[in-house]
Design brief:
about 260 residues, mainly alpha, about 0% strand
Length: about 260
């Protein structure tokens, strides 16, 4: 840059330093939303779990269904719970940027990985139930999240039927046998013949998100009452030597990758 433009290189660097310093002060003061002042150990001072009051699963499902048409699956599930808790509890839910999780749509920005509904449900469960103890397998958030994934994979979805559906066509139920977006949607498309951009496919996914939100709140309500009973027996690694689903041949055929067995 030159002085003719009103700013020398030295002045630019000096001003950038002032901006950076000002931002640092703001961050330390906690002025930037969810950013918290770093503690002496390098961690943060944010506190969770966040308070939870029991919600109506049916109402939650309807909110998720409607929200899918605005922010898609992951953010819809998060909003279906947190929007109600904003009214019932207030902060910290009031400041939580639920819409930012729109990236979960299409299995993470359209890459077809884990269904955004499952990811959104795990965000909610862990925010509410609290940090997972390192190495533990029985923390509530982990168990509820695993139950949701297992239920999603092995249940004929969608189960939720909106009072006023946006699509009048009967939506077929299919069992994904997987928590992955592309497998879940792909199986449904194969069975029904509807393409990815059809109104029927979109409404199917909206109803699936609603079904997941309904199931999530059912689990959270039981947890709140102290009556939550985990159902999933998912162990993660299984017989393939790596964290993965066990129905590998659905996608890999006979060429299933083998995990290394050499001890380190």
């Amino acid at each position: 840059m030159n002085k003719e433009n009103g700013l020398s290189r030295r002045g630019f660097i000096r001003n950038a330093g002032l901006v950076t310093a000002s931002a640092g002060i703001a961050l330390a003061a906690g002025d930037f939303g969810f950013v918290r002042k770093a503690g002496a150990t390098g961690g943060t001072t944010e506190k969770w779990p966040w308070p939870y009051v029991k919600l109506d699963p049916e109402k939650t499902a309807q909110i998720a269904y409607d929200e899918w048409y605005r922010v898609f699956c992951g953010a819809a599930v998060i909003n279906s719970v947190f929007s109600q808790l904003r009214e019932e509890v207030g902060e910290p839910y009031t400041s939580f940027p639920s819409d930012a999780f729109v990236f979960l749509e299409g299995g993470m920005v359209g890459w077809g990985t884990v269904c955004g509904s499952n990811a959104g449900a795990n965000v909610v469960a862990n925010v509410i139930t609290g940090p997972r103890t390192l190495g533990a397998e029985h923390d509530a958030g982990h168990l509820i999240g695993s139950d949701i994934m297992d239920w999603y994979a092995n249940t004929a979805l969608p189960v939720f039927k909106p009072a006023k559906p946006r699509v009048e066509t009967a939506i077929m139920q299919t069992t994904a046998q997987s928590p992955l977006c592309h497998v879940s949607v792909g199986r449904w498309m194969k069975e029904t013949g509807y393409p990815i951009k059809s109104a029927e496919r979109k409404d199917r996914c909206a109803r699936v998100a609603a079904s997941v939100a309904q199931q999530l709140v059912t689990h959270l309500n039981a947890w709140k009452d102290g009556d939550y009973d985990p159902h999933s027996s998912w162990s993660g690694v299984g017989s393939v030597g790596i964290t993965a689903q066990q129905n590998c041949t659905d996608c890999h055929g006979d060429s299933i990758p083998e995990a290394p067995t050499k001890k380190i």
